[in-house]
Amino acid sequence: MKGVLKLSFAYLRYYKKQTFSLFLGVLLSAALLSGVGSLLYSGKQQNIEKVRQEYGDWHYYFQSDAKEAQRLLEKKNGNGYEIEASGTITIRKVMEEPYKIMLAYGDESYRHMMNRTLLKGSYPKAANEVAMDTYVLRNLGIPEKIGSEVVLDGERFLLSGILSESVEGTEDYMQVFVHESIDYGQNGVFFYFKFMENRPLYKQLAAFCKKFDVEKESIRRNSELDGYFKGTAPSAYWEVLKVSFTEEGTGIPYLYAYYNEGGQLTNKVILIALGVFGVFILYSLFQVSVRKRMSQYSIMQTLGMAEGYTFGSLLGELLLIFAAGFPLGCLLGNSVAALLYGKIGQIFVGVQNKGLRHIGGKQELAGISAANIGEAGRFYIDEKLIWCSLIFFVVVLAVMSFYLVRKMRSYSWGQMIRKESGKRKKNRKIYCLHRENLSDILTKKFMFGKISSFFGILFSLSIGGIIFLGATYVTENTKIHNELTFKADDGLGSDIQVFEDSDDLGHMIPAYIAEEIRKLPDVESVNTMNYMLGEIPLYDGKLIWTSYFAETDPSDDLEPDPVLMEKYHGMATIEGDDDYKLKVNVYGYDDEMLLELSDYLLEGSIDPDTMRKEDTVIFKTIMGGQGTYDGIDMKTGDFVTLKTPKSTEVPAEVLKFQEEDSFYTEQKLEVAALASRPLAKTDAFIGDEESSTVDIIMTEEQMEKYFGVTGYHNMGITLKEGVDGAAVSSEIRQLTKSVSKCMVKDYTQAIKTENAFIEQKMLFFYGVAFVLLGISILHIINSMQYLVAARKHEFGILRAMGITDGGFRRMLFKEGIRYGIYANLLMFALYVSMQKILYYVMVRVYLYLHPVAWVSVMPVVVMLVLNLIICILAMEWAGKSILEEGIMEELNGGDRIS
Asked: Coil, strand, or helix at residue 792?
């Protein structure tokens, strides 16, 4: 063992350049893997905390009664489960006017789990006291002052406390907390609980249900949180696996999306990819070093050195370098990662859907935006990843050493001494008898001496460019996707939103309000939206994805939304074999917004003047789980029959579209374009989940012509640069205070945060791409040095025969150009294939909106030129070391260790 280490150390000292290159490769690979891993891990840990804040620190809940709830509260530990926290909320009364309001009593544990922190005052201590959050206070027009009078359902209360806002999932009703003694005779008790998180939640839940004889079907889960702690039983995963291979339209994208809960699978794929890239670089660097010493290993094996000794020598070299490079790489990577996380940590934190809430449905205009992330939190070092990486690399280094020793077996000792990697076809042709450029002939001979080695070198030279172009392609499309969802899904297309918080068609913002807002000096523009609820027939199999809607699902696996069923008779109805009717949102956009909708165009064209002239509309279709839009057989030029109420002043029952025909009107309209998303929208009626709802979009003039709608349901206001959004919002509130259920929401700060968030994300992506490119350049330089060093003997002969230094450099220059050109051709060919795969993954797995099919020309040109320059410079730099040596030293090989 001592002799093996001594030999390994001698090689490291003698081949200083190769040692340094390998050390740098280990350092950068470890830094990149551990640094990115800690960034992702920190984001995950912070995301868990954000989920607790936004969705509540609970795992499950179910409806109970007072006695059972008390029994559950007393029995927190049992066989197979351990409850860390539990609490109850008792709903005393539910009101529908002026908004949907819930009077409830929640015990202290419930309030803690729901993050209902007391900001001012106290929790109700008497029957005439109430507590609520600022969102409820502002909507009810109650001053944010302790002791203010609160009138609810004709009953007078005093405001005793102001709480923090409610978590997601409770926004359908405004919560007003009352004293425990309040009782209106109809009480609904809900039991919330949280298990210890050091064991899988699904096992604890099964034990809990068995102990208390609770039906699992009655339990609701905090799906945003329990996924981080194994809340799904393995049997469910097997069912998903079965569905992914048996159900049409699912497949690998469906499987990946399911397992990628919380983005955890994506993180693992990123880390695996970085680990594989690091292994490739280390192997490429080390095999160059080994090839340079083939003659020495041959001599030592001739003298009796066993293969085991050779293996120990190689592994010893790698482990010595790894022992120095890996800890320093982890230290460097985590230091840089900690610095980055402090600056741009938000991009690693999952986004919470904490947005604007509408009565009558979930309206989240803030949607998935960086403004809802909050602070990035503290930086965590992923110690588990470091230990796993350590074991992984040690195993890989052992396998690498074993493979190289095995590879030596395929060569004879003579080939190893001559550093030949295989048989060469002898060619007795004498080129100097012809008038040809001998340097060109030698260059070709050197390059194509062994085709497998030639393509191996080309692949090594092109891999960095492929990775860089792939990262650039993904980054560009991520930016496009973020910008599109920024306006459509997130609802952040304008600085201020003014909307009707009602599911009554008669509630509208009068047109004169929009004109008054336009006159405000700080307002740049006002975009308006009309609304009407409609229904369209999809006969003769036009609805292809019948399982998309719960009401038409032939398997009956989906349960229709009870609220939608009660108010609108569901989203869809079955009229016969392959005949269906579907509820749709009907939007009227102004011209500016219609033109902006072109960014979401799937088919056709959008021209407001043509739409008015020819009575055409835009059909916003549904999107499948793989990013496809062929669930409804609709194309441009088709006609759609739109059925709507005759006016906005109709009874609520009419919106079920089950009344007599006299209540409705029908219009046959031609489809001018298909779109993937709406811009302005509302969730106050049947909802608009971006991808799962059909919308009919037309001009405002058509809305007035067909339905008599002149008022607006939503207005998007863009402010002038540098204006105080809060001040303008106050002015707009004064203008709209006379309009029933009209709400104003300021998004100026959210938009600034989102823009900064996108910039930070792009900078990080480009930064990683450049780091990978830097590692690849190191590998290219090392490969070129080997190409030159491996031919020292041949170059020595050429110099002895009289080739000048200038001629030698020209020969290397030509070889560098040829390698650059061939590497670029291979890089381009491989990138085309990889780009198609990336496009498929972005569309089918990550559901990117309208990704471009090809990367921008500039990065491709830059990469091609850069690759060519690197090959030339690396070749010339390697040749410089040849010219600095003596001819006799080159003829003798120059590889002996003194």
From this structure: helix
Distance CA 6, CA 313 (A): 9
Local confidence band at 169 (pLDDT 50, 70, 90 cut-offs): low
Task: Please state at what angle helix 748-789 crosses helix 792-800, rounded to 10 degrees.
Answer: 60
Dihedral over alpha carbons 342, 344, 348, 351 (to 10 degrees): 110
CA distance 827 to 831: 6
Q: What share of the chain is helix, strand, coil (3-state, %, to 5)?
A: 55, 15, 30
Tell whether omega for the bond before 253 is within 30 degrees of 0, i.e. cis. Answer: no
374 close to 72: Cβ distance less than 8 angstroms: no
C-alpha triplet 349, 345, 29: angle, nearest 5°? 100
For 670-681, the three-class secondary structure string (H helix, E strand, C coil) is: EEEEEECCCCCC
- Determine how many CB atoms are found less than 10 A away from the CB of residue 418: 15
Q: How far apart are CA 150 and CA 878, in angstroms?
A: 84
Pairing of the two strands 101-106 and 149-152: unpaired
Record the tokens describing residue 841, joined without a space: 């993954």
Longest dimension (CA), the chain: 113
Task: Please state, in angstroms and rounded to a whole number, the distance separating the CA atoms of residues 208 and 75.
Answer: 10
* CA distance linking residue 148 with residue 760, whole number of Å: 45
Backbone angles phi, psi at 666, to 5 degrees: -125, 145
DSSP state string for 75-136: --EETTEEEEEEEEEEEEEEE-SSS-EEEEEE-HHHHHHTT--EEEE-S--STTEEEEEHHH
617 beta partners = 671
263 compared with 178, residue with greater pLDDT:
178
Residues 46, 845, 559, 688, CA torsion sign? positive
pLDDT digits (tens, 9 = 90+) for 688-720: 876 789 999 999 999 999 998 999 999 989 888
Half-sphere exposure of 807 (CA within 13 A, CB side): 12
Q: What is the C-alpha to C-alpha distance for residues 155 and 165, in angstroms, rounded to an integer?
A: 24
**pLDDT, tens digit, 9 for 90 and up, residues 811-857:** 888 888 888 888 889 888 888 888 888 888 888 777 788 888 777 78
Write down the residue that tokens 């990775």 correspond to: 467
Look up residue 594 and give its DSSP letter: H
Residue pair 549/571 in contact (Cβ under 8 Å)? The answer is: yes
Asked if residue 667 lies in contact with residue 641, where contact means CB atoms within 8 angstroms, the answer is yes
